[in-house]
Amino acid sequence: MAGLLRRVLDEDRVRRLLELSGAGVPPWHFYDESARAALAGAVGGAASLGALAALERYPPAALAIWALAGLLAGLSVGMIAPYAYISYRASSRSSRIEQDLSTWAAAMMAYVSSGLTFPEALKRSASALRNGPLRRELETVMRDSEVLGSDPRSALLAMAQRSPSQLLREILVGAIDAMDSGKDLSSYFRDSLAYVLNHRRNYLRKLANDVALAAELFVMIFVVTPLVLAILLAVMGSMSVGAQPYYGELLAVIAFAFVPLVGLGYLLLVDSIYPRWW
After folding, report:
1. CATH topology for the 96-200 domain
2. Helix axes 133-146, 152-162, angle to 10 degrees
3. DSSP-assigned letter for residue 211
């Protein structure tokens, strides 16, 4: 199963996502966990739908089809879920970093303007941040510089390479160029602060539009769609003559499977608009 996942999910892409998400695990561990999740999903899906078909006393052929459908559905979800999780975690980590960028840029501007050296300003600006991914990354830079003897330029370049935030990468690369060319770092971080704040304003405008769209989707998914399906199935069931199709079972699937699963997807959608869990 792990070999199949290596063919389906590119290993370089997985390694990069693991680095951006801050998971701290090697790719082989991800593939092993994904294989276990896929097998568990396949067994759980087949057992669930097979048991449901058995309770309804379906014929053996129908029971086998339901069990096979559950197996394939569970296998697909188990294979996709770990990859979707690390992608979501990388996106969430990027959002949390960008939330603290304005504070960090303002602190760097103030400390550099006061005459502190760049490493000292970097150390003090890290202590001014809340406990989050940006502060941990800056503490890693200081540890590499003070304990391992790495120069600040190399440590910042490594931080830029493992950062999931494109905005942070741009600021770090610009800071490295400013140090190499001898530019005034105070002016650079002042311009960076203005750039971050402008980016933040644009993000908030986009957030307002996305929230409005999510509210419209909520009405369509949780009010209109289940109501229309329930009415259609009820009318079709009352008009059918002779052998009754499985309208009652379909209503149960809508109530106990469709609505909860779509609700979970909607929660993930809303959180992806403004991720804040990690």
Report:
1. Receptor-associated Protein (1.20.81)
2. 150
3. H
Element (H, E) at 251: helix 247-253
DSSP secondary-structure letter at 243? S
Query: Across the chain, which distance is largest between two alpha carbons, in Å?
Result: 89
CA atoms within 13 A on the CB side of 108: 24
Which secondary structure element, helix H or strand E, spans residue 117, and what is its range? none
Q: What is the full per-residue pLDDT of the chain (278 aa) written as tens digits?
A: 656 666 667 778 888 888 888 777 788 788 788 888 888 888 888 887 778 777 767 788 877 887 888 888 888 888 888 888 888 888 888 888 888 888 899 998 998 888 888 888 888 888 888 888 888 888 888 888 877 777 778 888 888 888 888 899 999 999 888 888 888 888 988 998 899 999 888 888 888 888 888 888 888 887 888 788 778 877 776 776 555 556 666 777 777 777 787 878 777 777 766 655 33
Cα gap 274→45, rounded to integer Å? 31
Residue ranges of domains in the chain: 96-200
Task: Tell me if residue 151 falls in helix, strand or coil.
Answer: coil
The SS3 assignment for 12 reads helix
What is the rounded CA–CA span in Å between residue 32 and residue 25? 11
Structural contact between residues 143 and 169, judged by C-beta atoms closer than 8 angstroms: no
Residues in contact with 56: Cβ distance below 8 Å, sequence separation at least 6, in sequence order:
246, 249
| Spatial distance between the Cα atoms of 263 and 254, rounded to a whole number of angstroms | 12
User: How many other CB atoms are found less than 10 A from the CB of residue 163?
Assistant: 22
**CA separation for the pair 125, 189 (Å, rounded):** 12
pTM score of the predicted model: 0.72
Contact between 162 and 185 (Cβ < 8 Å): no
